[in-house]
């Protein structure tokens, strides 16, 4: 493994964060979202008995999949993980560390539920904000919130050959992102400053997600009944 | 669910159709194609016991998947469902209505065969036309007809964890789109006006698709025989 | 099938190769990579009992999937298979020929191992080189080498409803592409001419891949042990 070039990247990482034209709050939110969802993907990969390449790749796909779709669909270049070139390096480093852990303790899985909810909240609100800045309608922007927040996991599930858990009757997930995005737009309309409305919307998504998990709030499955058979 | 913003969109929807720089015929064709393939995706989702989010998402993926690939591959921005921002709203409304239907009657499935064929015909000819306008070769344009017409369903199948029915030995589907696109190019070469050749090519695709289903026209499966085992 | 337009393409194919602004070495490398990975995809399709459309589609996806992701992610337009419009025609012709073969002899599969390794080596080094030219960091460029070399096969596996063999504990594949890309960058830093370093890096990837297959070099599977169950 070529470690030397990785070490040489560190000053560039610091410079890249400092010089970012992005406001610091969004930057920090995206940073945590990348790590939280990357780790979630790596856990998924280990559940499917993959090797290091699989752990890194699925972590990469879950961490960057939703944001990559957002950037491609909105024609934003360079992609956010090419512009912030330290993101993939960090995911790589986490994958290396993660591969050295022989077994995943049970409390880690519970901790991951929180970090996954955090990733959902942060990515969704960042995604909805970016879409709005590009000039889409509110409905489309809310959809971009959902896509950014959830499609990394969807692609990860597809790659691991499972029906995406997002689509089956599971505790609220995409719904939290959708409602949370509208909440932000509503606060925008009321003139609430983003410095306040941004963390409020993220908080709503994270808490409603965790509450859905805890109280098992879910939509009912829609049956396909065929009276002719 | 934030219904109020949806209602406010209606005048914008009307304005967006009226002010469209796209000729009305293409516009109408795309509109019907979106609805037909969206409903097809929602039926697929219900067959897989998904909830409302799944029904909307798979409907969205089948309705816009092929056209999104076309727009990304040809670098056309904004994507057609971002430009025509009422399309996703309509798919959302259909998904809501669809989720309130407790059971799908048998005749609906038969009706869907027709609307699916219609979606194939319309999307394929629109896709091939757009590729040609961008300046691709005829062969590439015919492939864009096939991609636009069929890849929504392919991605929908992949997301539902099935081998895409397009690739297994099934009644002609992609073949109809490919031949229909060439038919349009042939009529272009003969100087036939698009106002005539467009509906003719769509009609050929729809009818050949329905005939393939009815008479079970299909290609033979290619075996992988290994004499060494 | 409309053969006549295909025949008319031949002079355009020759002109397209001759007038290519790409250096001849890269052009030839890409050409062989397209054919090698296209045939690999078609073999995969036949193993899954697909028909002609499936054989062509999976061949197309494996041949162009990785490079399409590279071009989309780096915002390079037109896509390489739209610019070099003879590539899809060649894959189409191979699919026709391939569909006429009633059974695949055992030696063909062994020959394919070599051509698959060749495709990996060529696509990876071309992909890494292109990313570097666009101005990405070395780490990102090495990742583009891996994406270009391997993701056609990953998407092909997903479409065929298998967990991508890349991610499970299989003989080194992505690792060869990653290390080979860094080898090229290292030789660049040492001032080695690309006319020498390019074939050396490709050769390293091809030989290390074949050696991994022969000696069964692989990473160990990472278990997901849960002491609580």
Automatic annotation (TrEMBL), chains A, B, C:
InterPro entries: Gly_transporter
Record-stated family: Belongs to the UPF0126 family.
Membrane topology, record value: Multi-pass membrane protein
Endpoints of the signal sequence: none
Organism the protein comes from: Roseiconus nitratireducens
Residue span(s) of domain Glycine transporter: 28-100, 114-187
Keyword Translocase recorded: no
Primary localisation category: membrane
Keyword match Lipid metabolism: no
Keywords: Cell membrane, Membrane, Transmembrane, Transmembrane helix
Gene Ontology cellular component terms for the protein in this record: plasma membrane
Protein name (record): Trimeric intracellular cation channel family protein
Taxonomy, superkingdom: Bacteria
Localization per record: Cell membrane
Bilayer-crossing regions: 24-45, 52-74, 86-104, 111-132, 138-160, 172-190, 196-215
């Amino acid at each position: 493994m070529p470690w030397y070039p990785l070490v040489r990247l560190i000053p560039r990482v610091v410079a890249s964060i400092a010089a970012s034209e992005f406001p610091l709050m969004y930057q920090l939110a995206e940073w945590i979202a990348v790590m939280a969802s990357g780790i979630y993907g790596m856990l998924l990969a280990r559940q499917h008995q993959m090797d290091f390449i699989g752990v890194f790749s699925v972590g990469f796909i879950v961490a960057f999949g939703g944001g990559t779709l957002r950037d491609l669909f909105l024609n934003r270049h360079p992609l956010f993980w090419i512009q912030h070139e330290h993101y993939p390096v960090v995911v790589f480093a986490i994958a290396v560390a993660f591969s050295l852990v022989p077994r995943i303790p049970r409390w880690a899985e519970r901790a991951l539920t929180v970090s996954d909810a955090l990733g959902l909240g942060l990515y969704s609100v960042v995604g909805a904000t970016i879409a709005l800045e590009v000039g889409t309608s509110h409905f489309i922007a809310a959809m971009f919130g959902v896509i950014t927040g959830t499609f990394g996991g969807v692609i990860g599930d597809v790659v691991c050959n499972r029906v995406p858990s997002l689509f089956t009757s599971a505790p609220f997930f995409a719904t939290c992102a959708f409602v949370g995005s509208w909440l932000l737009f509503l606060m925008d309309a009321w003139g609430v400053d983003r410095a306040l409305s941004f963390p409020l919307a993220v908080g709503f998504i994270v808490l409603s997600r965790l509450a859905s998990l805890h109280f098992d709030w879910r939509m009912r499955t829609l049956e396909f009944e065929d009276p002719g058979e």
